[in-house]
C-alpha cells in the first residue's frame, strides 16, 4: 500500500477543453476534438527546467524470472522527432550470439524512453519480421521531463527471436515550435537461460504431446502490412465496410493454430464506448460529434466465414479524458495493450490443403480509425510433413444488438445490449495423436448512456463479459485446456457548466476502469488457476476562465490484485494532482 502526493503546483499547464468545435488543425494531426480528448498537454513556462524527470508506470504484476543471468540484444538509442509520414524505424535484429545456453525460460522485451517538453501521447508498435510484439502508447511529457519503461514477456515469439530479422518501430510523432517533445527510446531483448532442472525426467508420450501443444509456436505468420510503409505496419480500418485482409498458406504439418490479434482505437473512435447514437446527432443537428453509438467489435473471418470476435477492453491513453489522471500511473493497458487470442485449430482441416486462404478483419460500426493486425502462431509436427484434419462443427450466430433510445432535445437515455457466441470443433491427426479441439467464445455487452443538462453532462456505464474455452484432447486423455472469464467495466461521467458568479466554466470528470479475469489452464494433468482484479478510479475537475485554466484537481486510485497458483501480487495506489493559480498560458 502506497500513497503519495504528486504536486504539480509548479507545472504551468495548458489545458483546452473542446466541446463541439475543433480548434486545432495541423498541430492536431491524427487527433480529434471530443469532450473526452481535451487538447491538453502539460507545459512549464520555462522549458529549461533542471528538476529530475518523473518516472511514469503502469501498475502490473512483475514477470516471474529464473535466477539466471540474461544475454541481451540492444538497439542503440533512437530519437522519434518528426516521424509522421515517414517509414518505421528499421534495424537488423540478430539473436545474441554470446548465450551459453540454448534453452530459455523467459524472453523479455524492454522498452524504455524519456521525453522532455510538450507533446501528446502517441501510439506506437514494435514488429519483428512483420510480427507485432508490442502495441503501446507514450506517456505525455512535462518540462522537467519524464521517463518510463515497459517490460513484456515475449517468450511466445521464441521461434522468431532465434533468427535474423528486421525489427521495425513506428511511433508517429510531430515536432514543431509548440510540440517540442522528442521521444528518446531504447529497446532491449533479454534472454533468460532456463535453470537446470535435475528432477526433470522424460515424460510419457502424451505428457510430451501436452507440453509441446503448450510450448511456444514453431512458426509465426504475420498479418500486418508489408514494408515500407509510412504510417505503421498495422491495417487501418476507418469504417464498418472496410475489410483488412491478407492471403496466407500454412505448412501441411501444422497441428495447432492460434491467431493473436492486436487492436487500438483512435480519433473518432478513441472513446467509442461514449459515442452518441446517430439518431441523437441527427435530431439535434450536431456536427463534429463522433457517432455510430457505443458498440464496437472486431470480427475475424477465414475465407469469408466468421471464426472469432474481439470485444476489446476500453484502454484510455495517457492524454485521455483528463491528462492529470494518468500522471504518474498510466491507464490500465495503455503501456502494454492487450492482444486477443482466436483459436484456429478446429479449422486446420480446411486450410491444410497447401492452398492460399484469406484472413479478414472488420470492425462493426467503426469510425476513423482502428489499427488492427495479427500474428498466426503455428505448431508443426517435427515427425511428419503432412498431417490430416477435419472441421466437425462450426456455429457462429449473427450478432444480436438492440438499442433502446429515449430522447428529448439534447437530453436522452440510451440502453444498448449485445450478445454473440461462436463455437467450433475439429480434429487433427499428427504424430502427437488424433487431437480434437473444441473452442467456444461468448460475449455479453451492456451500455447505458445518459445525457442531461441539455447534453452538457454524460454518464456511460458499460460492462462486457467475455468467456473463452479451449479443450484439446486425445480420444482418451486430456492434452490442454484453458477457460477464461473476463469482465471489462467502463464508467465515465463528464459534466460542464458555467459558474456565473466567478465567471468560469467548470469541467468535472469521473472514470472507473476495470479489467478483471478468472482463468484456469491445464497442460496434461497439471492445472493452474489465477484471478486478477484490476480497477482504476479517477476523479477530477478544472475551472477555466477566458480560456485559461485557473485551477485543476485530479486524483486516481488503483487496486491491482493478482492471485495465482504461481504467486500473488497486490498493489494499492493513490495519487493526487493539484494545480492552482500557476496556469498562465494556453494555446489556441
Ligand atoms: C537554463 O537555466 C540555467 C539556470 O537557470 C541558465 O543558466 C541557462 O542559461 C538556461 N538555459 C537556457 C537555454 O535558457
Ligand atoms: C539508452 O541507453 C544508453 C546506453 O545505456 C543510455 O546512455 C541512455 O540514457 C538510454 N536512453 C534511454 C532513453 O533510456
Ligand atoms: C545473422 O546476422 C549476423 C550479423 O549480420 C551474421 O553474422 C550471421 O551470419 C547471420 N545469420 C544468418 C543465419 O544469416
Ligand atoms: C435541424 O435542422 C433542421 C433543418 O435546418 C431544422 O428544421 C430543425 O429545426 C433543426 N433542429 C434543431 C434541434 O435545431
Ligand atoms: C479422429 O477423431 C475424430 C473424433 O473422434 C474421428 O471422427 C476421426 O475419424 C479420427 N481421425 C482419424 C484419422 O482417426
Ligand atoms: C467437442 O465438440 C464435439 C462436436 O460438437 C462434441 O461432440 C464433443 O462433445 C465436444 N467435447 C467436449 C469435451 O465438449
Ligand atoms: C434537459 O434536462 C435538464 C436538466 O438536466 C432540464 O433543465 C432541461 O429542461 C431538459 N431539456 C429538455 C429539452 O427537456
Ligand atoms: C474540484 O475537486 C475538489 C476536490 O474534490 C473540490 O474540493 C472542489 O470543490 C471541486 N471544484 C469544483 C468546481 O467542482
UniProtKB/TrEMBL annotation:
<dbReference type="Pfam" id="PF12222">
    <property type="entry name" value="PNGaseA"/>
</dbReference>
<dbReference type="InterPro" id="IPR056948">
    <property type="entry name" value="PNGaseA_N"/>
</dbReference>
<feature type="signal peptide">
    <location>
        <begin position="1"/>
        <end position="27"/>
    </location>
</feature>
<dbReference type="Pfam" id="PF25156">
    <property type="entry name" value="PNGase_A_C"/>
</dbReference>
<protein>
    <submittedName>
        <fullName>Peptide-N4-(N-acetyl-beta-glucosaminyl)asparagine amidase A</fullName>
    </submittedName>
</protein>
<feature type="domain" description="Peptide N-acetyl-beta-D-glucosaminyl asparaginase amidase A N-terminal">
    <location>
        <begin position="69"/>
        <end position="391"/>
    </location>
</feature>
<dbReference type="InterPro" id="IPR021102">
    <property type="entry name" value="PNGase_A"/>
</dbReference>
<keyword id="KW-0732">Signal</keyword>
